[in-house]
Write a structure and sequence with these properties.
The protein is mostly helical. Helices cover 68% and strands 0% of the residues. The protein contains 6 helices and no strands. α1 crosses α5.
């Protein structure tokens, strides 16, 4: 049952990314080009995602487990630390340079083209390297 719900949720998420234009790199880069040819339409996508998520967090606070009976994850930390700042900068740089983030790149793989596969390989490589780099940085520069 969990796999069925995961499949449905993933399909809805991918369809939403496609419909909203998040899989179109020029649309994403147009949103980020504030001082040039700015395209503000992705603000509606973000607003459309934030409202249901806020409602979901309110509902989740009152529950001990999901509808399927699995435990809900703990609330995310509200602390802004070095890891969050560095991760945000890296995510933003990748998003700005490529015009895609992890969800949309996976949804876009069916379009074909080598650039999507190069981005996916680079993203997966970064995901593999990041934990080792974080351990190394934490040993050299202890968090405050």
């Amino acid at each position: 049952m969990q796999l069925l719900f995961a499949f449905i949720a993933g399909g809805l998420f991918g369809a939403g990314l496609f419909t909203s234009g998040m899989t179109d790199t020029t649309k994403v880069q147009g949103w980020l080009d504030v001082f040039g040819n700015w395209d503000p339409t992705l603000a509606f996508v973000m607003g459309g995602a934030m409202v249901p998520m806020a409602i979901a967090w309110i509902i989740a606070e009152k529950r001990k487990s999901s509808v399927l009976g699995t435990p809900l994850p703990p609330n995310p930390s509200t602390t802004i630390d070095r890891n969050l700042a560095l991760g945000s900068v890296m995510f933003g740089l990748g998003w700005g340079l490529a015009g895609l983030c992890p969800g949309p790149v996976i949804a876009s793989l069916s379009y074909g083209g080598s650039s999507l596969w190069i981005f996916l390989i680079a993203m997966l490589s970064g995901m593999l390297v990041a934990p080792h780099l974080r351990l190394r940085l934490d040993r050299q520069l202890p968090a405050e």
